[in-house]
Design goal:
FAD/NAD(P)-binding domain; 3 domains; Enolase-like, domain 1; binds flavin-adenine dinucleotide
C-alpha cells in the first residue's frame, strides 16, 4: 500500500482527500482500501483528535475508568495508511482547481474528494460554549465533562434536551456523584418520539438512577456567571447549575460548501445513489448527506449505521466501485438498562400503533396510512422485519400491523 502524499509548489496533492475526521471518514478510508486502491489518502479534521467511535462518548466510556477516552479512538492511520491532518478545518473547496483550503491557509489538492463533516451542535441564546457550557459532540467534550462531573465537591449538572444524546448523557452522568437534572419541553420525557407508556418507562429508568426531571418548558435563554449558570425557561421558572450540557441535535456542517455544492433546505448535501454530489469528483457521506433511500425515499440520517455504511460505500465508489448505496440504515440508543433499535421516522405527531411483544414493545408510526417508522423497544434482531413492513404495502387497517414483528 502506498500512502505517499506529493507536494507540488505549495499544494499538498492526495489521490483521495476526506474532509472531516469522523465515523464516515474512517469507514471511507477502509472502503478505499477494500476496493483495492493503493493511492494516498489524507483526512482533514477540525478537531485535535482523529476518528472516534462517537456512541461511546455518551454511553460505554462512562462505565469504565478511561477518562481520556482513548479506547474510543479508531486506528485509521494504522488500518489504512491514511495521513491525518488534524486541528485545521477545511474553509473552502475549489471544484475547478480540485483543491481544498484550510483555515490555516494550507492548500490540499485531490483526485477524489469526500465531504464527511457531520453536524454542528445547536446552542441556545446566552449559552455559548465555554468552561461551564458544553454542546456535546466530541471526544474533547467527553474529557471536559468527565473532569467536571467527577470534581469535588460534586457539581449540579443540567442537561438540556431529551433526544438521544440528552437522555443518554443524563443517564451516564448519573454514574458519577454529580447531581443531574434533565430539562426538557415535554409533558413526559422524550414524548416527541415515544408513546406515553414508553415515555413513562424511560422516566422511571432515569429517576431510579437519580436523574431529576424538569419537564414542560423550553429554555428561552441562559445566563453564565463566574459561579454558575442559570437557565431561564419559557414558563417563568429557572434552573441553576454549575455546568450545562446541551443535547439539542445538530445542523449539517456544510456552511463552507454553500454555493459550491447543491444543498437541501436543511443544509444537507444532495447526493445521488452513488453518493456523488453535484460537483465532479466530490462525494458526501454520513450526517451531511441527503440521499435517495430505496425504502425511506429522499432522506438524511444522523446515525452510526448510515455513517459507516455510506462512508464505506463512498470510499469504494471513489476508488472505482460501481455498486449503488442501497442500504436502509437503522439506529439505536441505550439509556442504562433500556435499549432500542429503530428504522425510519419516529414522531408522536404521526399516528402510532403500539404492540407489546414479549418483554418489549413494537411501535409503528404512520402518516397517511403508510408506515414511516418502526421502533423496536427491547425487541432485538428484528430490524429486517421492520424494513419489510416499511417497504410493504399500506395496511388496510393499521390495527393489522399488530403481530407482524416479534
Ligand atoms: C454523543 C453521541 C452519541 C451517539 N450515539 C449514537 C448511537 O448510539 N447510535 C447511533 O446510531 N448514532 C449515534 N450517534 C450519532 C453518530 O455518532 C453520528 O451519526 C456519526 O458520528 C456521524 O458520522 P459522520 O462521520 O457523518 O460525522 P462525525 O462522526 O460527527 O464526524 C465529522 C467530523 O468532521 C469534523 N469537521 C466538521 N467540519 C469540518 C471542517 N470544515 N473541516 C474538517 N473537519 C470538520 C468534525 O469536527 C467531526 O470530527 C451519536 C452521536 C453523538 C454525538
Amino acid at each position: 500500500m502506498s500512502s505517499d502524499t506529493r507536494e507540488t509548489s505549495d499544494i499538498r496533492q492526495h489521490d483521495f482527500l476526506i474532509i472531516g475526521a469522523g465515523m464516515a471518514a474512517h469507514a471511507a478510508a477502509v472502503g478505499i482500501r477494500a476496493q483495492g486502491a493503493t493511492g494516498s489518502i489524507a483526512i482533514l479534521g477540525a478537531e485535535a483528535d482523529g476518528p472516534v467511535e462517537r456512541p461511546a462518548l455518551s454511553k460505554d466510556l462512562w462505565s469504565g475508568d478511561d477518562a481520556e477516552g482513548t479506547s474510543a479512538l479508531k486506528d485509521t492511520a494504522g488500518e489504512t495508511g491514511a495521513s491525518l491532518v488534524l486541528g485545521d478545518a477545511a474553509a473552502s473547496i475549489d471544484v475547478e482547481a480540485r483543491t481544498v483550503t484550510t483555515e490555516s491557509g494550507a492548500v490540499h489538492g485531490y483526485g477524489e474528494l469526500l465531504v464527511a463533516t457531520g453536524g454542528v451542535p445547536r446552542t441556545l441564546d446566552g449559552l455559548d460554549e465555554g468552561e461551564r457550557v458544553i454542546a456535546y459532540r466530541s471526544l474533547d467534550d467527553y474529557r471536559r465533562l468527565r473532569a467536571l462531573a467527577t470534581a469535588t465537591p460534586a457539581p449540579r449538572i443540567a442537561v438540556v434536551g431529551a433526544g438521544f444524546v440528552g437522555t443518554e448523557i443524563a443517564a451516564s452522568l448519573s454514574r458519577t456523584d454529580a447531581d443531574v437534572v434533565l430539562v426538557h419541553p415535554g409533558a413526559r420525557v422524550a414524548d416527541h418520539v415515544l408513546p406515553d407508556e414508553l415515555a413513562t418507562e424511560l422516566e422511571r429508568e432515569l429517576t431510579e438512577h437519580d436523574v431529576d426531571l424538569h419537564g414542560g418548558a423550553e429554555v428561552s435563554r441562559g445566563e453564565v456567571r463566574l459561579d454558575g449558570v442559570t437557565l431561564h425557561l419559557d414558563d417563568d421558572t429557572s434552573v441553576d447549575a454549575d455546568v450545562v450540557v446541551i443535547g439539542l441535535g445538530v445542523r449539517p456542517a456544510t456552511r463552507f460548501v454553500e454555493g459550491v455544492l447543491d444543498l437541501a433546505d436543511d443544509g444537507g448535501i444532495v447526493v445521488d445513489e452513488h453518493l456523488r454530489t453535484s460537483a465532479p469528483h466530490v462525494w458526501a457521506a454520513g450526517d451531511v448527506a441527503q440521499y435517495p433511500d430505496p425504502i425511506l425515499g429522499l432522506t438524511r440520517v444522523e446515525h452510526v449505521d448510515a455513517a459507516t455504511t455510506q462512508g464505506e460505500a463512498a470510499g469504494r465508489a471513489m476508488a472505482g466501485g460501481t455498486e449503488p448505496y442501497a442500504h436502509t440504515p437503522i439506529f439505536w440508543s441505550d439509556v442504562r438498562d433500556l435499549g432500542y433499535e429503530a428504522v425510519g421516522t419516529l414522531s408522536t405527531r404521526l399516528q402510532t400503533v403500539v404492540d407489546p411483544v414479549g418483554d418489549g414493545t413494537v411501535v409503528y408510526y404512520l402518516d397517511d396510512d403508510a408506515v414511516r417508522g418502526v421502533l423496536l423497544w427491547n425487541v432485538w434482531e428484528q430490524t429486517d422485519a421492520a424494513k419489510e413492513v416499511l417497504a410493504g404495502p399500506r395496511p388496510a387497517d393499521p390495527a393489522e400491523l399488530r403481530g407482524r414483528i416479534g
